[in-house]
């Protein structure tokens, strides 16, 4: 069994949407949709399976022997979020692919030859002035008030300025690892979003309107057959000669030689809307890098919360987390600062089956979300879903474990 770091370096701008981007059934409307910074866990895991196929052909052209070989290597079926949610403790069979971590931002300092793994800055991060050194401090550090509600006591941060909002960005899980294999002992790195948007326009055809093709006026935005929309693609900025950014995951692969794994995985793949191109770089991690991981390939974010005023009672979402009853979670929390992300993933059968959308729209607590609660034992079971954790969903940090 070996652990590999798989990095995806974008070769062009990309677009990763979420379900519900378009407002169906609204005619003559302008749409404006924005890409997410990262693909979903299911998207990346699907690419990992694809990269490990030993036989790669057009759909429907596999021999029975080739099907059996692929099924043995990457599993007979793709990941099913429906199955993972309904059977909390069960994991699926994906052949030699045992587990995948949550998606992270990877930064490589070209001058110092140091790599860093970044996660989303916790959503209780205080916003500092531009003159201050970027660092993570909680808005609860300056004091807090307790107010009583029908759902128990709730914590209100003292002096929090809602107009200023919270700090956003990424924070490294350690000070970095050098090419020489040394784990640095400096402070954690906090950076702003290394992304920029690229605006593109397009035309959405309303195929439900009964009208022949020769009657369409594609140049007229008022034509009932169509509506204009704008899309904001994302470009991952590269600091020329300074830092190279990509996003990545850790993957546990069984019984494979390093040379074989890297040979089949290190190539160019298409992802997202329009199949934007990404260069895949795979390497087997060394012992020093295993310190970045806990059991189950959960990123070790302990250092981020070492000095948190509520470190004994905090729950931080390292990756998007699905809970079946979010209202109950919030009622049992003293403090919550979170965003949500919706996901209706594609499910596939065997390699000859067409992909289809799942029936259910899953709303998840997004990475970076923070809960403060003294009732951890009552809510933690909602997060413990082995089927989701197998591919990087529902990875979290729980206070008091340092």
Describe the overall structure.
This is CRISPR type III-b/ramp module-associated protein cmr3. Pfam families: Cas_Cmr3. InterPro entries: CRISPR-assoc_protein_Cmr3. With 402 residues, the chain is α+β, with helices and mostly antiparallel strands. It has one domain (2-398). It is 13% helix and 31% strand. It has seven helices and 25 strands. Strands 1, 3, 4, 5, 8, 9, 10, 13, 14 and 15 form a ten-stranded antiparallel beta sheet that branches. Strand 14 (268-271) and strand 15 form a beta hairpin. It is globular, with a radius of gyration of 23 Å. 32% of the residues are buried. The model is unreliable at 20-30 (pLDDT under 50).
Jot down its keywords:
31% strand; 4-stranded antiparallel sheet; 7 helices; 402 residues; 10-stranded antiparallel sheet; alpha+beta; 25 strands
Briefly summarize what is shown.
With 402 residues, this protein is of the alpha+beta class.
Task: Let me know the number of strands.
Answer: 25
The radius of gyration is 23 Å
Number of helical regions: 7
Tell me the helix content.
10-25%
In this structure, how is the largest beta sheet organized?
10 strands, antiparallel
Write down the overall mean pLDDT. 85
What's the number of domains?
1
* Overall 3D shape: globular
Category by helix and strand content: alpha+beta
What is the beta-strand fraction?
Answer: 25-35%
| End-to-end distance | 27 Å
Poorly predicted regions are: 20-30
